[in-house]
Specification:
With 95 residues, the protein is α+β, with helices and mostly antiparallel strands. The protein has one domain: Ubiquitin-like (UB roll). The protein starts with 5 loop residues before the first strand and ends in a 5-residue tail after the last strand.
């Protein structure tokens, strides 16, 4: 946390999201926040994320987007912590 009490999150955007958001970035949010709230802020700032960062009320995780902290896949209700390094990946279908 910096001296303003803001939460800094370090992001790595993987293809094709890197073409929208850049390869890496840092986001600052005041206070602790859930993944869901964080994604809402990102979607409002960059509408092209909408097809990836979307969900229905009953969903536990975003549809079309994996949010990883290390090897852990985060759910919408999980909290983002100060200094987190998150990887943002498009979820692929098929096999």
């Amino acid at each position: 946390m910096d001296d303003t009490g803001s939460l800094k999150v370090h992001l790595t955007w993987h293809s094709p999201l890197d073409r929208i958001m850049g390869e890496t970035g840092e986001e600052t949010i005041a206070g602790e926040t859930t993944v869901e709230s964080f994604l809402v802020v990102l979607r409002e700032r960059e509408p092209r994320l909408q097809p990836y960062a979307r969900w229905e009320p009953q969903d536990i995780k975003p549809l079309g987007l994996l949010v990883l902290r290390g090897a852990d896949i985060l759910a919408l209700a999980d909290f983002i912590r100060p200094g987190d390094r998150l990887d943002m990946l498009v979820m692929l279908e098929g096999g």
